[in-house]
Amino acid sequence: MKVIKNILGSIYHKILFFIFKYRALSKKNIIIDNTVKLYYNKENLNISNDVVIGAFTVIYAINSGHSSKKGLLKIGKNTSIGEFNNIRAAGGEITIGNNCLISQFVTIVASNHNIKKGENINGQGWDETRTDVFIGDDVWIGANCVILPGVKIANGSVIAAGSVVTKDVQDNSIMIGVPAKKIKDR
Fold first, then answer.
1. Is 113 one of the annotated active-site residues of the chain?
2. Which of 97, 120, 152, 180 is most buried per CB count within 10 Å?
3. Using one digit for the tens of pLDDT, what is the confidence trace for 61-88?
4. Given 21, 66, 113, 152, which residue is catalytic?
5. 2-185: what fold?
6. How many angstroms separate the CA atoms of 23 and 18, rounded?
7. Residue 26: helix, strand or coil by DSSP?
8. For residue 110, which of 36, 169, 60, 76 has the smallest C-alpha distance?
9. What is the Cα–Cα distance from 18 to 68, expressed in whole angstroms?
């Protein structure tokens, strides 16, 4: 029974992928690797022209029953998203600007779960006190970075590999570390 479920699930995912890819490619120059996992509602995902999404990236752009906030993902034109990334726009909005580079193994989350004592974590809804991620134009996010909810990364900024962004980043800043701190202007 489990094997049949897995086969049907795989077929379902492939059908959804081809439907999405057809819609996405009706725009100009959108390249989405066929290993990308997309979980989305049509109204929750907006990909501009000239976008590349690399292999084995997982994208959630859905409305969640755990949140009153709509999950929404917007990707600007001429943006490249590398391989093995995790982008989760559920319970909040993620906006990625134009002309951005997102390297490999980057995690971007629009919301986190509540962690109230005395309740099972898995049953708790989203923490709506700190949501959404905004990434401006001309931003480079290095490999293995984590971008946490409530963060705004302003235009022209660079986030060094392995950094964890917990606070807003000013225009043209170069950030590094855990948590990420500004080391200089670009």
1. yes
2. 180
3. 987 666 667 889 999 999 999 999 999 9
4. 113
5. UDP N-Acetylglucosamine Acyltransferase; domain 1 (2.160.10)
6. 9
7. coil
8. 60
9. 30
